Each structure stands twice: as structure tokens, then as C-alpha cells.
Amino acid sequence: MPVRSKTTRQKMTAAQANALPPSQVVDRYWIEAFAPGVDPHPRAMEKYRAYLEDPDSVRTGKWMVFVPSEDHDPVWAKVKAAVGAGQLGPRAKTATAKPSPRSDRPDRWVIVIYTTDFQDRADVGRVLAGLRQLGIGGRISYKRDVETLQSRYGAGASLYVSQPGSLEFDDHQPTRKVHR
Fold first, then answer.
1. Does 9 score more than 50 pLDDT?
2. Cα–chain center distance at 63
3. Residue 172 pLDDT > 90, yes or no?
4. Domain containing 161 — which CATH number?
């Protein structure tokens, strides 16, 4: 049964929510995991300000894994443990049981694994390999954070795509400016 908080009027802290399986969290859209040494305080406004000043300054990106509802909690547990052990990117987040207005498929949930620089293909590939080692075998798309800041979602928003089971990834938008 989903958990709202200790009392019905009190919202959980981020730390409390992050300790639960995503299917048990109903008072926020996302829960997160952080690599050792990563500051867990939100930096969204700093990233947005940097984007407004210079869109090319936003170098972060993310692998987006979509999993069926029944696999969501166990796959998140693996990703969370790997991020916490420093084996993937600096941060990961996943959707929770709170219905999202952006979700067009209630039968699948997204898990997002960040990298620090979308141009560092070696690191992007290292994180992909880590996801494959965790048993994530399906098609995985990689999106630059600048696309999110521009509200680009769905078809055409991905920079890289890795086909099922592959350790390779293709530039999905070869005409898009990737290097400064």
C-alpha cells in the first residue's frame, strides 16, 4: 500500500521518500539516488539560469530507461544501489506512484540515470555498460538536459539511442550541434 507520510497532513522529507520503493511514494513525482560525494540539494534553478545565459553551457544528460510497472521497484533497487556505489552516473531518479501529467503510458515507468557531460562519449558508454550489467536489456535513449529545459519530450528529443542488448549507441540526431 502506498505511503503518504507518518500523518495524513505531513509530507515526507526527500530522504524519507528516497528510502522507499517508488511504488510506495505518492506525494511527489520523483525519488532520487546519489553517488558518493554528490550534493543532493537541488540545482535545477542554477542549471536553468546557466541555460538562459548560454545554452551550450549545460552539458549534463541522461539515459532514460522505461520499465513495465511490475519490474519498476526491483530495477530501481538495482540502479539505486549501483549509483550509491559510484558505478553509474552521479545521480539517478525515478517516477513514483504519484500520477504524472507528462506520463502517456501508466503501464511503464521511467528511470533516469545522469551523466555529467553528453560530449564525453566514453563516460556515456561506461554508464550504458553499467546499465547493461544490471540486466537492463531493452532499447535505451539518451537525452541532453538542454532538451528538457527547452520542454522537448518524446520523439526527436533523444541524442543517442542504444538498441536492445547493445553496448553501442548511435547519434540519433546527426544534424544536431553536439560539439561547440
1. no
2. 6
3. no
4. 3.30.760.10
Model's pTM, two decimal places? 0.86
**DSSP per-residue letters across the chain:** --B--SSTTSPPPHHHHHTS-GGGB-SSSEEEEE-TT---S--HHHHHHHHHH-GGG---EEEEEEEEGGGHHHHHHHHHHHHHTTSS-SEEEEE-SSPPTT-S-TTEEEEEEEES-TT-HHHHHHHHHHHHHTT--S-EEEEEHHHHHTT--STT--SEEE-TT-S--EES-TTS----
Start-to-end C-alpha separation, the chain: 49
Considering the domain boundaries, does residue 9 fall inside one?
Answer: no
Q: Is residue 142 part of a domain?
A: yes
Distances (CA, A) of 46 to 37, 43, 117: 19, 5, 16
Counting the structural domains of the chain, the total is 1
Please give the single-letter amino acid code of residue 135.
G
